[in-house]
Amino acid sequence: MPAKIIQVGRKKNKLPLLENIKIENIAAEGKALARVNERVLFVPMAVPGDIVDVQISKKKNSFMEGYVKTYKELSSMRIKPKCKHFGTCGGCKWQMLPYKNQLEFKQQQVIDALQRIAKVELPEICPIIGSENDYYYRNKLEYTFSNKRWFTEEEMNEPDVENTAGVGFHIPKMFDKILDITECHLQAEPTNAIRNWLRTYALNNKLSFYNVRMHEGFLRNLIIRNTSTGELMVIMIFGKNEHDQIQNLLHQMQANFPQITSLLYVINQKKNDTINDLEVLHFAGKNHIMEKMEELNFKIGPKSFYQTNSAQAYQLYSVAREFAALTGKEIVYDLYSGTGTIANFVAHKAKKVIGVEFIPEAIEDAKENALLNELGNTIFIAGDTKDVLNHDFFDTNGNPDVIILDPPRAGLHTDVVKMLIWAAPQKIVYVSCNPATQARDIALLNENYKLIKVQPVDMFPQTHHVENVVLLEKREN
Ligand code: SAH
To answer: Please, are residues 466 and 458 in contact by the beta-carbon 8 Å criterion?
Structure first.
Protein backbone atom coordinates (compact mmCIF):
# COMPACT_ATOMS: atom_id res chain seq x y z
CA MET A 1 0.00 0.00 0.00
CA PRO A 2 1.51 3.39 -0.90
CA ALA A 3 1.64 6.00 1.86
CA LYS A 4 -1.09 8.56 1.37
CA ILE A 5 -1.14 12.04 2.88
CA ILE A 6 -4.54 13.40 3.82
CA GLN A 7 -5.10 17.00 4.78
CA VAL A 8 -7.57 17.03 7.66
CA GLY A 9 -9.87 19.96 8.31
CA ARG A 10 -10.06 23.23 6.45
CA LYS A 11 -7.43 25.18 8.31
CA LYS A 12 -4.40 25.64 6.10
CA ASN A 13 -1.77 24.92 8.72
CA LYS A 14 -3.50 21.86 10.20
CA LEU A 15 -1.02 19.01 10.40
CA PRO A 16 -1.80 16.02 8.19
CA LEU A 17 -2.92 12.48 8.92
CA LEU A 18 -0.62 10.06 7.11
CA GLU A 19 -2.19 6.79 6.07
CA ASN A 20 -0.66 3.33 5.70
CA ILE A 21 2.76 4.15 7.07
CA LYS A 22 5.05 1.16 7.42
CA ILE A 23 7.19 1.27 10.57
CA GLU A 24 10.79 0.41 9.71
CA ASN A 25 12.88 0.59 12.83
CA ILE A 26 13.29 1.69 16.44
CA ALA A 27 15.18 4.91 17.11
CA ALA A 28 16.53 6.72 20.18
CA GLU A 29 14.32 6.79 23.31
CA GLY A 30 12.44 3.74 22.04
CA LYS A 31 10.38 5.61 19.46
CA ALA A 32 9.42 3.80 16.27
CA LEU A 33 10.73 5.22 13.02
CA ALA A 34 9.34 5.43 9.49
CA ARG A 35 10.40 7.35 6.40
CA VAL A 36 7.92 9.48 4.50
CA ASN A 37 9.10 11.32 1.38
CA GLU A 38 12.72 11.59 2.58
CA ARG A 39 11.63 12.76 6.01
CA VAL A 40 12.04 10.71 9.16
CA LEU A 41 8.90 10.21 11.21
CA PHE A 42 9.01 9.29 14.92
CA VAL A 43 5.98 7.55 16.48
CA PRO A 44 5.65 6.01 19.95
CA MET A 45 3.82 2.72 20.63
CA ALA A 46 4.59 1.08 17.27
CA VAL A 47 7.04 -1.63 16.24
CA PRO A 48 8.82 -2.46 12.98
CA GLY A 49 6.44 -4.17 10.58
CA ASP A 50 3.29 -2.37 11.85
CA ILE A 51 1.26 -0.49 9.23
CA VAL A 52 -0.40 2.51 10.84
CA ASP A 53 -2.22 5.77 10.23
CA VAL A 54 -0.33 8.54 11.98
CA GLN A 55 -1.60 11.94 13.05
CA ILE A 56 1.33 14.32 12.72
CA SER A 57 1.84 16.52 15.76
CA LYS A 58 5.13 18.24 14.83
CA LYS A 59 6.67 18.97 11.44
CA LYS A 60 10.24 20.20 10.96
CA ASN A 61 12.45 20.34 7.90
CA SER A 62 14.25 17.11 8.61
CA PHE A 63 11.78 15.14 10.73
CA MET A 64 8.20 14.77 11.90
CA GLU A 65 6.56 13.45 15.06
CA GLY A 66 3.11 11.95 15.44
CA TYR A 67 0.96 9.38 17.17
CA VAL A 68 -0.87 6.31 15.91
CA LYS A 69 -4.51 6.95 15.04
CA THR A 70 -5.23 3.47 13.66
CA TYR A 71 -3.30 0.23 13.55
CA LYS A 72 -4.02 -1.12 10.04
CA GLU A 73 -1.81 -4.20 10.27
CA LEU A 74 0.14 -5.47 13.24
CA SER A 75 3.74 -6.61 12.85
CA SER A 76 4.44 -10.34 12.97
CA MET A 77 7.16 -9.46 15.50
CA ARG A 78 4.54 -8.61 18.15
CA ILE A 79 3.73 -10.91 21.04
CA LYS A 80 0.90 -10.79 23.56
CA PRO A 81 1.90 -8.50 26.45
CA LYS A 82 2.18 -10.35 29.76
CA CYS A 83 0.49 -7.72 31.89
CA LYS A 84 -3.17 -6.79 31.86
CA HIS A 85 -2.27 -3.14 32.51
CA PHE A 86 -0.12 -2.89 29.37
CA GLY A 87 -0.95 0.16 27.29
CA THR A 88 -2.41 2.21 30.17
CA CYS A 89 0.39 1.84 32.71
CA GLY A 90 3.49 3.70 31.60
CA GLY A 91 5.84 1.15 33.09
CA CYS A 92 6.73 -1.49 30.49
CA LYS A 93 6.20 -0.06 27.04
CA TRP A 94 8.03 -2.85 25.21
CA GLN A 95 6.05 -5.85 26.44
CA MET A 96 4.73 -6.37 22.92
CA LEU A 97 8.27 -7.17 21.74
CA PRO A 98 10.02 -10.49 22.39
CA TYR A 99 12.97 -9.93 24.74
CA LYS A 100 15.40 -11.02 22.00
CA ASN A 101 14.18 -8.14 19.78
CA GLN A 102 14.27 -5.67 22.66
CA LEU A 103 17.95 -6.50 23.09
CA GLU A 104 18.63 -6.05 19.36
CA PHE A 105 17.02 -2.60 19.39
CA LYS A 106 18.98 -1.58 22.49
CA GLN A 107 22.22 -2.69 20.89
CA GLN A 108 21.27 -0.69 17.79
CA GLN A 109 20.56 2.44 19.89
CA VAL A 110 24.10 2.29 21.27
CA ILE A 111 25.63 1.80 17.82
CA ASP A 112 23.51 4.59 16.32
CA ALA A 113 24.53 7.04 19.06
CA LEU A 114 28.20 6.26 18.58
CA GLN A 115 27.99 6.54 14.80
CA ARG A 116 25.76 9.61 14.58
CA ILE A 117 26.83 11.62 17.62
CA ALA A 118 30.31 10.51 18.68
CA LYS A 119 31.51 10.03 15.09
CA VAL A 120 34.75 8.49 16.29
CA GLU A 121 36.58 5.42 15.10
CA LEU A 122 34.65 2.46 16.53
CA PRO A 123 36.07 -0.74 17.94
CA GLU A 124 34.07 -3.94 17.72
CA ILE A 125 30.97 -3.47 19.86
CA CYS A 126 30.32 -6.35 22.25
CA PRO A 127 26.86 -7.92 22.14
CA ILE A 128 24.59 -6.55 24.87
CA ILE A 129 24.46 -8.43 28.18
CA GLY A 130 20.80 -9.30 28.63
CA SER A 131 19.08 -9.79 31.97
CA GLU A 132 18.55 -13.37 33.03
CA ASN A 133 15.17 -12.33 34.40
CA ASP A 134 13.23 -10.30 31.89
CA TYR A 135 10.48 -9.87 34.52
CA TYR A 136 10.59 -9.69 38.35
CA TYR A 137 13.98 -7.98 38.23
CA ARG A 138 13.28 -4.86 40.28
CA ASN A 139 14.25 -4.67 43.94
CA LYS A 140 12.15 -1.57 44.63
CA LEU A 141 8.67 -0.41 43.70
CA GLU A 142 6.79 2.62 44.89
CA TYR A 143 3.01 2.72 44.76
CA THR A 144 0.72 5.72 45.22
CA PHE A 145 -2.74 5.80 46.77
CA SER A 146 -5.41 7.95 45.17
CA ASN A 147 -9.02 8.72 46.02
CA LYS A 148 -9.73 9.19 42.32
CA ARG A 149 -8.14 6.48 40.29
CA TRP A 150 -7.84 6.50 36.53
CA PHE A 151 -10.72 4.72 34.79
CA THR A 152 -9.90 2.41 31.93
CA GLU A 153 -11.96 2.67 28.74
CA GLU A 154 -14.13 -0.32 29.70
CA GLU A 155 -14.88 1.20 33.09
CA MET A 156 -15.86 4.49 31.48
CA ASN A 157 -18.63 2.64 29.66
CA GLU A 158 -19.97 1.00 32.79
CA PRO A 159 -22.91 2.96 34.19
CA ASP A 160 -21.84 3.10 37.83
CA VAL A 161 -18.38 2.28 39.06
CA GLU A 162 -18.69 2.18 42.82
CA ASN A 163 -15.16 2.39 44.11
CA THR A 164 -13.12 5.35 42.95
CA ALA A 165 -10.11 4.71 45.21
CA GLY A 166 -7.01 2.94 43.96
CA VAL A 167 -3.36 2.19 44.57
CA GLY A 168 -0.81 1.84 41.81
CA PHE A 169 1.33 3.85 39.42
CA HIS A 170 1.10 7.28 37.87
CA ILE A 171 -0.32 7.53 34.38
CA PRO A 172 2.62 8.88 32.31
CA LYS A 173 3.06 12.65 32.63
CA MET A 174 -0.02 13.07 34.89
CA PHE A 175 0.87 13.86 38.48
CA ASP A 176 -2.69 13.41 39.77
CA LYS A 177 -3.77 10.31 37.86
CA ILE A 178 -3.12 6.89 39.39
CA LEU A 179 -3.83 3.63 37.66
CA ASP A 180 -5.12 1.02 40.11
CA ILE A 181 -2.68 -1.87 39.75
CA THR A 182 -3.80 -5.40 40.54
CA GLU A 183 -0.80 -7.15 39.01
CA CYS A 184 2.73 -6.04 38.28
CA HIS A 185 5.44 -8.35 36.97
CA LEU A 186 8.45 -6.20 37.76
CA GLN A 187 9.11 -7.23 41.36
CA ALA A 188 8.92 -10.70 42.89
CA GLU A 189 6.16 -11.51 45.34
CA PRO A 190 4.88 -10.54 47.85
CA THR A 191 4.77 -7.14 46.16
CA ASN A 192 1.34 -7.76 44.58
CA ALA A 193 0.05 -9.59 47.62
CA ILE A 194 0.94 -6.71 49.97
CA ARG A 195 -0.45 -3.97 47.74
CA ASN A 196 -3.68 -5.85 47.03
CA TRP A 197 -4.11 -6.80 50.69
CA LEU A 198 -3.69 -3.13 51.66
CA ARG A 199 -6.34 -2.01 49.20
CA THR A 200 -8.84 -4.51 50.60
CA TYR A 201 -7.94 -3.68 54.21
CA ALA A 202 -8.32 0.03 53.54
CA LEU A 203 -11.67 -0.32 51.81
CA ASN A 204 -13.01 -2.68 54.49
CA ASN A 205 -11.91 -0.28 57.24
CA LYS A 206 -13.05 2.82 55.36
CA LEU A 207 -9.60 4.41 55.44
CA SER A 208 -9.23 7.40 53.17
CA PHE A 209 -6.96 7.36 50.10
CA TYR A 210 -4.92 10.47 49.39
CA ASN A 211 -6.35 13.33 47.37
CA VAL A 212 -3.36 14.95 45.74
CA ARG A 213 -5.22 18.05 44.60
CA MET A 214 -6.65 18.88 48.04
CA HIS A 215 -3.67 17.40 49.94
CA GLU A 216 -5.77 15.35 52.27
CA GLY A 217 -6.30 11.68 53.01
CA PHE A 218 -4.71 9.01 55.17
CA LEU A 219 -3.00 6.47 52.88
CA ARG A 220 -0.42 8.12 50.67
CA ASN A 221 2.42 5.89 49.38
CA LEU A 222 3.83 2.41 49.76
CA ILE A 223 7.45 1.46 49.08
CA ILE A 224 8.52 -2.18 48.87
CA ARG A 225 12.21 -3.13 48.65
CA ASN A 226 13.72 -6.59 48.58
CA THR A 227 17.16 -8.15 48.30
CA SER A 228 18.64 -11.26 46.74
CA THR A 229 19.30 -12.47 50.29
CA GLY A 230 15.55 -12.63 51.02
CA GLU A 231 15.18 -9.48 53.11
CA LEU A 232 12.08 -7.38 52.66
CA MET A 233 11.47 -3.75 53.63
CA VAL A 234 8.03 -2.15 53.58
CA ILE A 235 7.61 1.59 54.15
CA MET A 236 4.06 2.92 54.55
CA ILE A 237 3.63 6.63 54.04
CA PHE A 238 0.63 8.28 55.68
CA GLY A 239 -0.80 11.71 54.94
CA LYS A 240 -2.17 12.07 58.50
CA ASN A 241 -0.83 11.17 61.92
CA GLU A 242 -3.68 8.91 63.08
CA HIS A 243 -1.91 6.88 65.73
CA ASP A 244 -4.44 4.07 66.29
CA GLN A 245 -5.22 3.53 62.65
CA ILE A 246 -1.52 3.39 61.83
CA GLN A 247 -0.79 0.87 64.58
CA ASN A 248 -3.75 -1.33 63.64
CA LEU A 249 -2.84 -1.35 59.98
CA LEU A 250 0.82 -2.16 60.58
CA HIS A 251 -0.04 -4.89 63.11
CA GLN A 252 -2.34 -6.51 60.60
CA MET A 253 0.25 -6.22 57.86
CA GLN A 254 2.89 -7.81 60.05
CA ALA A 255 0.56 -10.68 60.93
CA ASN A 256 -0.33 -11.27 57.28
CA PHE A 257 3.20 -10.94 55.92
CA PRO A 258 5.66 -12.43 58.42
CA GLN A 259 8.35 -12.38 55.71
CA ILE A 260 8.72 -8.59 56.14
CA THR A 261 12.10 -8.06 57.83
CA SER A 262 11.82 -4.29 58.15
CA LEU A 263 8.48 -2.53 58.64
CA LEU A 264 8.74 1.25 58.70
CA TYR A 265 6.46 4.24 58.26
CA VAL A 266 6.53 7.94 57.56
CA ILE A 267 4.07 10.76 58.19
CA ASN A 268 4.17 13.02 55.18
CA GLN A 269 2.11 16.18 55.44
CA LYS A 270 4.10 18.09 52.82
CA LYS A 271 2.91 18.83 49.33
CA ASN A 272 5.48 16.61 47.58
CA ASP A 273 5.91 12.84 47.87
CA THR A 274 9.63 12.59 48.69
CA ILE A 275 10.50 11.12 52.08
CA ASN A 276 14.16 12.14 51.91
CA ASP A 277 13.64 15.13 54.21
CA LEU A 278 11.34 13.27 56.65
CA GLU A 279 11.91 11.07 59.67
CA VAL A 280 11.39 7.36 59.01
CA LEU A 281 9.72 5.71 62.01
CA HIS A 282 10.30 2.16 63.10
CA PHE A 283 7.45 -0.30 63.60
CA ALA A 284 9.07 -3.76 63.51
CA GLY A 285 12.21 -5.59 62.43
CA LYS A 286 15.49 -3.97 61.39
CA ASN A 287 15.79 -0.39 60.13
CA HIS A 288 17.59 -1.52 56.97
CA ILE A 289 18.01 -4.47 54.60
CA MET A 290 21.29 -6.05 53.52
CA GLU A 291 22.30 -6.81 49.94
CA LYS A 292 25.25 -8.97 48.97
CA MET A 293 27.50 -8.75 45.95
CA GLU A 294 30.42 -11.18 45.77
CA GLU A 295 31.96 -10.97 49.24
CA LEU A 296 30.65 -7.43 49.79
CA ASN A 297 27.72 -6.44 51.97
CA PHE A 298 25.66 -3.34 51.36
CA LYS A 299 23.45 -1.83 54.01
CA ILE A 300 20.37 -0.26 52.44
CA GLY A 301 18.37 2.14 54.58
CA PRO A 302 14.89 3.39 53.65
CA LYS A 303 16.37 6.46 51.93
CA SER A 304 19.45 4.84 50.39
CA PHE A 305 19.89 4.53 46.66
CA TYR A 306 20.69 1.10 45.27
CA GLN A 307 20.59 0.07 41.61
CA THR A 308 17.09 -1.33 41.03
CA ASN A 309 18.16 -4.47 39.17
CA SER A 310 20.69 -6.07 41.53
CA ALA A 311 21.67 -8.95 39.26
CA GLN A 312 22.37 -6.66 36.33
CA ALA A 313 24.12 -4.12 38.56
CA TYR A 314 26.58 -6.93 39.26
CA GLN A 315 27.06 -7.46 35.51
CA LEU A 316 27.51 -3.73 34.96
CA TYR A 317 30.08 -3.33 37.74
CA SER A 318 31.91 -6.44 36.57
CA VAL A 319 32.30 -4.92 33.12
CA ALA A 320 33.53 -1.65 34.62
CA ARG A 321 36.05 -3.51 36.79
CA GLU A 322 37.23 -5.63 33.87
CA PHE A 323 37.69 -2.51 31.68
CA ALA A 324 39.64 -0.81 34.48
CA ALA A 325 41.95 -3.89 34.60
CA LEU A 326 43.37 -2.91 37.99
CA THR A 327 46.50 -4.47 39.42
CA GLY A 328 46.38 -3.13 42.98
CA LYS A 329 48.69 -0.18 42.36
CA GLU A 330 46.25 2.29 40.89
CA ILE A 331 44.64 5.43 42.23
CA VAL A 332 41.04 5.24 41.06
CA TYR A 333 38.38 7.96 41.10
CA ASP A 334 34.70 6.92 41.16
CA LEU A 335 32.83 10.02 40.05
CA TYR A 336 29.04 10.23 40.58
CA SER A 337 29.55 7.44 43.07
CA GLY A 338 26.07 7.27 44.65
CA THR A 339 26.33 5.06 47.74
CA GLY A 340 29.80 3.97 46.67
CA THR A 341 28.92 0.57 45.26
CA ILE A 342 31.39 0.76 42.36
CA ALA A 343 34.11 2.16 44.64
CA ASN A 344 33.55 -0.72 47.08
CA PHE A 345 33.47 -3.19 44.21
CA VAL A 346 36.87 -2.22 42.81
CA ALA A 347 38.64 -1.23 46.05
CA HIS A 348 40.32 -4.57 46.75
CA LYS A 349 42.05 -4.30 43.38
CA ALA A 350 43.20 -0.68 43.78
CA LYS A 351 45.67 1.24 45.91
CA LYS A 352 43.10 3.86 46.74
CA VAL A 353 39.60 4.85 45.57
CA ILE A 354 38.17 8.36 45.80
CA GLY A 355 34.40 8.67 45.41
CA VAL A 356 32.60 11.94 44.61
CA GLU A 357 28.82 12.36 44.87
CA PHE A 358 26.62 15.38 45.52
CA ILE A 359 24.01 13.83 47.84
CA PRO A 360 25.48 13.97 51.38
CA GLU A 361 23.32 11.06 52.66
CA ALA A 362 24.62 8.85 49.86
CA ILE A 363 28.17 9.74 50.92
CA GLU A 364 27.29 8.71 54.49
CA ASP A 365 26.00 5.35 53.19
CA ALA A 366 29.15 4.95 51.08
CA LYS A 367 31.39 5.50 54.12
CA GLU A 368 29.33 3.09 56.20
CA ASN A 369 29.49 0.41 53.51
CA ALA A 370 33.25 0.80 53.18
CA LEU A 371 33.57 0.35 56.96
CA LEU A 372 31.27 -2.64 56.91
CA ASN A 373 33.40 -4.23 54.21
CA GLU A 374 36.62 -3.29 56.02
CA LEU A 375 37.91 -1.29 53.09
CA GLY A 376 40.48 1.09 54.45
CA ASN A 377 41.54 2.47 51.09
CA THR A 378 38.43 4.44 50.10
CA ILE A 379 37.46 8.02 50.75
CA PHE A 380 34.20 9.70 49.82
CA ILE A 381 33.64 13.38 49.23
CA ALA A 382 30.29 15.16 48.98
CA GLY A 383 29.98 17.82 46.32
CA ASP A 384 29.16 18.62 42.73
CA THR A 385 31.75 16.93 40.51
CA LYS A 386 32.25 20.08 38.45
CA ASP A 387 33.10 22.09 41.59
CA VAL A 388 35.05 19.40 43.45
CA LEU A 389 37.40 18.51 40.61
CA ASN A 390 40.18 21.06 40.42
CA HIS A 391 43.97 21.08 40.40
CA ASP A 392 44.20 21.18 44.20
CA PHE A 393 41.83 18.26 44.57
CA PHE A 394 43.96 16.06 42.34
CA ASP A 395 47.14 17.28 44.07
CA THR A 396 45.69 16.38 47.48
CA ASN A 397 44.21 12.99 46.57
CA GLY A 398 46.75 11.83 44.05
CA ASN A 399 46.99 11.68 40.30
CA PRO A 400 44.38 9.29 38.94
CA ASP A 401 45.43 6.23 36.98
CA VAL A 402 41.81 5.30 36.25
CA ILE A 403 38.67 7.41 36.42
CA ILE A 404 35.30 5.65 36.52
CA LEU A 405 32.30 7.81 35.66
CA ASP A 406 28.61 7.03 36.15
CA PRO A 407 26.80 10.35 35.61
CA PRO A 408 23.02 10.90 35.39
CA ARG A 409 21.26 11.13 32.02
CA ALA A 410 22.59 14.62 31.24
CA GLY A 411 26.13 13.25 31.03
CA LEU A 412 29.24 15.29 31.87
CA HIS A 413 29.44 19.02 32.47
CA THR A 414 32.01 20.58 30.10
CA ASP A 415 34.08 21.67 33.13
CA VAL A 416 34.33 18.01 34.14
CA VAL A 417 35.47 17.06 30.63
CA LYS A 418 38.19 19.74 30.84
CA MET A 419 39.36 18.46 34.22
CA LEU A 420 39.47 14.87 32.97
CA ILE A 421 41.75 15.96 30.15
CA TRP A 422 43.89 17.95 32.58
CA ALA A 423 44.16 15.06 35.07
CA ALA A 424 45.07 12.75 32.18
CA PRO A 425 44.40 9.30 33.69
CA GLN A 426 45.58 6.36 31.61
CA LYS A 427 42.04 5.01 31.44
CA ILE A 428 38.53 6.36 31.66
CA VAL A 429 35.70 3.88 32.22
CA TYR A 430 32.45 5.61 31.40
CA VAL A 431 29.20 3.96 32.58
CA SER A 432 26.13 5.65 31.15
CA CYS A 433 22.35 5.34 31.18
CA ASN A 434 22.04 7.59 28.14
CA PRO A 435 23.98 6.57 25.01
CA ALA A 436 23.34 9.97 23.36
CA THR A 437 25.04 12.13 26.01
CA GLN A 438 27.76 9.51 26.45
CA ALA A 439 28.46 9.66 22.70
CA ARG A 440 28.63 13.47 22.90
CA ASP A 441 31.17 13.26 25.73
CA ILE A 442 33.24 10.63 23.89
CA ALA A 443 33.49 13.10 20.99
CA LEU A 444 34.65 15.85 23.37
CA LEU A 445 37.34 13.55 24.78
CA ASN A 446 38.35 12.08 21.44
CA GLU A 447 41.41 14.24 20.82
CA ASN A 448 42.98 12.88 24.00
CA TYR A 449 41.20 9.55 24.49
CA LYS A 450 40.66 6.69 22.09
CA LEU A 451 37.55 4.54 22.31
CA ILE A 452 38.76 0.99 22.96
CA LYS A 453 35.81 -1.07 24.21
CA VAL A 454 32.03 -0.82 24.20
CA GLN A 455 29.73 -3.05 26.24
CA PRO A 456 25.98 -2.40 26.43
CA VAL A 457 24.13 -3.89 29.42
CA ASP A 458 20.38 -4.24 29.85
CA MET A 459 19.23 -3.20 33.31
CA PHE A 460 15.57 -2.60 32.43
CA PRO A 461 13.87 -5.31 30.34
CA GLN A 462 10.46 -4.35 28.86
CA THR A 463 11.58 -0.71 28.56
CA HIS A 464 13.70 1.04 25.94
CA HIS A 465 16.36 2.05 28.49
CA VAL A 466 19.91 0.82 27.98
CA GLU A 467 23.17 1.21 29.91
CA ASN A 468 26.47 1.31 28.14
CA VAL A 469 30.01 0.96 29.45
CA VAL A 470 32.96 2.19 27.40
CA LEU A 471 36.69 2.09 27.92
CA LEU A 472 38.71 5.10 26.78
CA GLU A 473 42.48 5.04 26.75
CA LYS A 474 44.86 7.99 26.71
CA ARG A 475 46.36 8.62 23.30
CA GLU A 476 50.13 8.64 23.20
CA ASN A 477 51.27 12.02 21.88
N1 SAH B 1 27.45 4.67 40.59
C2 SAH B 1 26.33 4.68 41.49
C3 SAH B 1 25.29 5.79 41.23
C4 SAH B 1 25.07 6.23 39.84
S5 SAH B 1 23.65 7.25 39.64
C6 SAH B 1 25.66 3.33 41.50
O7 SAH B 1 25.89 2.51 40.62
O8 SAH B 1 24.89 3.06 42.41
C9 SAH B 1 24.40 8.83 39.42
C10 SAH B 1 24.74 9.53 40.71
O11 SAH B 1 25.28 10.81 40.38
C12 SAH B 1 23.56 9.79 41.62
O13 SAH B 1 23.86 9.26 42.89
C14 SAH B 1 23.47 11.32 41.70
O15 SAH B 1 23.08 11.78 42.96
C16 SAH B 1 24.87 11.74 41.36
N17 SAH B 1 25.04 13.07 40.77
C18 SAH B 1 24.25 13.66 39.84
N19 SAH B 1 24.77 14.82 39.46
C20 SAH B 1 25.92 15.00 40.16
C21 SAH B 1 26.90 16.03 40.19
N22 SAH B 1 26.79 17.10 39.42
N23 SAH B 1 27.96 15.86 41.01
C24 SAH B 1 28.06 14.75 41.79
N25 SAH B 1 27.16 13.76 41.80
C26 SAH B 1 26.09 13.87 41.00
So the answer is: yes
- Measured from the Cα of 307, ligand 1's closest atom is 8
Task: For the chain, give every residue range classified as CATH 2.40.50.140.
Answer: 4-73
Q: Which pLDDT tens digits describe the chain residue by residue (477 residues)? A: 445 555 554 455 689 999 999 999 998 888 999 999 889 999 989 999 999 999 999 999 889 999 999 999 999 999 999 999 998 898 899 999 999 999 999 999 999 999 999 999 999 999 999 999 999 999 999 999 999 898 877 777 776 667 789 999 998 888 888 999 999 999 999 999 999 999 999 999 999 999 999 999 999 999 999 999 999 999 999 999 999 999 999 999 999 999 999 999 999 999 999 999 999 999 999 999 999 999 999 999 999 999 999 999 999 999 999 999 999 999 999 999 999 999 999 999 999 999 999 999 899 999 999 999 999 999 999 999 999 999 999 999 999 999 999 999 999 999 999 999 999 999 999 999 999 999 999 999 999 999 999 999 999 999 999 999 999 999 987
CA–centroid distance, residue 136 to ligand 1 (Å)? 25
How far apart are the CA of 345 and the centre of ligand 1, in A?
16
Check if the beta carbon of residue 332 is closer than 8 Å to that of residue 350: yes
* Delimiting residues of CATH 3.40.50.150 domain(s) in the chain: 103-133+309-474
Pick from 185, 89, 207: nearest CA to 134: 185
Q: Is 126 a catalytic residue?
A: no
pTM assigned to the model:
0.92
Ligand 1 atom 6 nearest Cα: 338
Pocket test for ligand 1, best of 303, 341, 357, 469 (most atoms within 8 A of CB): 357
Its CATH class, for the domain covering 140-293, is mainly beta
Residue nearest to atom 2 of ligand 1 (CA): 338
CATH number of 4-73: 2.40.50.140
Q: What is the DSSP string of 52-104?
A: EEEEEEEE-SSEEEEEEEEEEE--TT----S-TTBTTBSS-TTTTS-HHHHHH
Q: Given the CA of residue 433, which atom of ligand 1 is nearest to it?
A: 5
Instruction: Detail the DSSP E strand segments found in 85-200.
Output: 140-146, 166-170, 178-180
User: Hey, whose CA ends up nearest to atom 1 of ligand 1?
Assistant: 337
